[in-house]
């Protein structure tokens, strides 16, 4: 591919995310210890088998000791129900027991422990009740097979909804690793041999051909080329590389061939350190405890304490059988039917509404973080700007404007470079004469040259003019400037700049209206960054920032309040993972999208404001549902324990079950009332 080696700025094309990648579901959950090893395919399979097994159980067994209109009984029917319950226990309970073990190991008992406690109590007490009722006939003991079956299926349904609603664009560290080549051309005994990059060591001499990615960090020992370092800066302006220049693994070589001596490989390299930083940032965010986790944890301990107190109090008063029945009833009432659906149903509803607005939610914990954002840190290129250059000024020193534009387009026609394409498009728009250049050649580090009508022309940067002592009048306008030369004389200059997104100004204005401070964070130079900030009325500007420095900036702002990070580049990925809430631009890199909590599919920045409003409403719904789900338990458990028995009030298990069912229904209906806030302009 012929490239015009002028300085330029673009996002590396190979990183563009496909629609397939954007809608792919990650197979494992990792938001909390209890769900770390759950596989969504396995969860679906267990859910449907559990539904099949639940149906005969609820038909053949009573509901809290009460026969329902559809309850079917016949001699031996309880044994069939018990058999189905045993199968359900081994098929449906495993994910929760595994999750509970993980929570206990992490010393954070929460929802999985609460569910597991309910499953263990309802199942094993039911087995005990069936055996006593069938073989001893001394007294009838109520079983909880109906409750065990419905609890299993409802909790599997809740977690299946939550896992499906939590979209993952892929593993960010794996996508970072994919930036490196599989093999490297290593110099050995004056010959080149291909070697896996895992075998590379410091001080090896490696050849990197045109268009290839550097396999590790190193220093150029021979050759001259230009390198796309957007990996580090987010700005794809080609950087001139020659002997003694430093290069970074994962960056892309231009049109020249380079010999480099490796200095840092593997985990010690820039990309390796970036991966480690990303993992640490994501791990820290995954440990953030949600309000649902805290409520489940409280209920777990409250249920255990109340059941234990009830057992101790009633044991000397009414004997082992009565005291045990009271304690078991308390634990059964603690079964989190409604609580298990409280959050997943809101998440699913929010995900659907957000998707309709053009935002994909990947991390469920982003919803709570979106409610109190104080700072919005934003990348420049590809986020606030389009990342596409356009001609903003044409300076004519000698001759005709159309002729100069025609000559520039002729030199750039053979190039796929963004700057070159912008000049050709500009020439077409202004109907400049169509001319053809011959003997076109790239001038590494400078630009391009060629013949038009037997005259030799150059389209080069100001550096070429300075290096060759050619007098010229510099263009003072901001942007990338290229000069057109003929016979060592400057006859014209063209200025190109990255244009602002149409919605950028409105977006910043709405952020300020919401009381959120906009902050521009970019790897570009301070002059360019300040020019963009001035257009958008952004006061806080941080320029020439590396990926690690972006993380430090996010962490620094987090000391003063919750931070939202918006970006699209590889260099934004660690900062996206670090922020309380992160938004990746849909047209950006896969690495950025895999690191972010949400992905903005619609290229309309004010949609982020809509999402923040939706997240606030969703958070209110979650809290309401948690009160409905947990409130029932808070009231019912003490009553079941007999706290008001002195007044003749002891909660009947059947009444408790009815209240429990109503609580579940209220939670579901409340989640469905979540609606979309007023749309942004």
Gross morphology is elongated
The CATH architecture of the largest domain can be given as 3-Layer(aba) Sandwich
Distance between the termini: 42 Å
- What is the C-alpha radius of gyration, as a whole number of Å? 33 Å
Number of helices: 23
Briefly, what is this?
The chain is α+β, with helices and mostly antiparallel strands.
Descriptive notes:
- The protein has 23 helices and 22 strands.
- It is of the alpha+beta class and 681 residues long.
- Helix content is 48%, strand content 18%.
- The protein has four domains: 27-165; 179-280, Calcium-transporting ATPase, cytoplasmic transduction domain A; 355-385 and 501-614, 3-Layer(aba) Sandwich (Rossmann fold), CATH 3.40.50; 387-499, Calcium-transporting ATPase, cytoplasmic domain N, CATH 3.40.1110.10.
- The relative contact order is 0.13.
- The protein is elongated, with a radius of gyration of 33 Å.
- The strands form four sheets. It has a seven-stranded mixed β-sheet, sandwiched between helices. The protein has a six-stranded antiparallel β-sheet with strand order 2-1-3-9-4-7, with no helix packed on it. A six-stranded antiparallel β-sheet has the order 12-17-16-15-14-13.
Could you name the key traits of this structure?
six-stranded antiparallel beta sheet; seven-stranded mixed beta sheet; 23 helices; Rossmann fold; Calcium-transporting ATPase, cytoplasmic transduction domain A; 4 domains; 681 residues; disordered N terminus; alpha+beta
Please describe the topology of this protein.
Blueprint: H1 19-23, H2 40-60, H3 77-92, H4 94-105, H5 111-135, H6 145-165, H7 172-177, E1 183-188, E2 191-196, E3 205-208, E4 217-222, E5 225-228, H8 230-233, E6 238-241, E7 246-247, E8 252-253, E9 258-264, H9 270-286, H10 291-333, H11 337-356, E10 359-361, H12 366-369, E11 373-378, H13 380-384, E12 385-396, H14 401-412, H15 418-429, E13 438-443, E14 447-452, E15 455-460, H16 462-467, E16 480-486, E17 489-500, H17 504-513, E18 517-521, H18 526-536, E19 540-542, H19 547-558, E20 562-567, H20 573-578, E21 581-585, H21 590-595, E22 598-600, H22 607-641, H23 653-672
Parallel strand pairs: 11-18, 11-20, 18-19, 20-21, 21-22
Antiparallel strand pairs: 1-2, 1-3, 3-9, 4-7, 4-9, 5-6, 5-8, 10-22, 12-17, 13-14, 14-15, 15-16, 16-17
